[in-house]
Amino acid sequence: LRTSAGLAASPAQLSRPGYRGRGWRPAVVPGSVLASLARAGAYPNVTYGERLLAVPSAPFAVPWWYRTEVVVPRDGARSTVLALDGLNARGAVWVNGRRVAGEATLVGAFRRHRLDITRLVRPGRNAIAVRVQPVRPDADFTVTWVDWNPHPPDHGMGLWQPASLIRSG
Fold it and tell me: pLDDT at residue 145 above 70?
């Protein structure tokens, strides 16, 4: 997980196998950007008392990146689908340096997205990068606030449901 602020690499570069950038943290999936940062120690104990209110909102005003590399077996599968079961609330996906879907397609926190990436994956190491946009609570259909908790400054931005590869054929 990494903020886009100060990121010099292009989406095509950071979505290629072997990319080695700086400033990346482990991501919690499913979970929000803030959940990942809290787990990594950037914002400790945000669920205690009113500590969530002390988390600044500025870091969440820019897009954030999720990135992973996966090994695809040489198993004869004819189809590979990237399943995103909950992306809040708008995003884009690149696989092995190629854009698969953009913010016009990946929108809406309550949608499940199935992206056919068959032509982009190959046996061996593959890279997947997902950029999530800052949530606009006044404009996006999104997972937002609950009345018993302070409003999180990231507005729940992130991959809040599982992401997986589905291979068949």
Answer: no
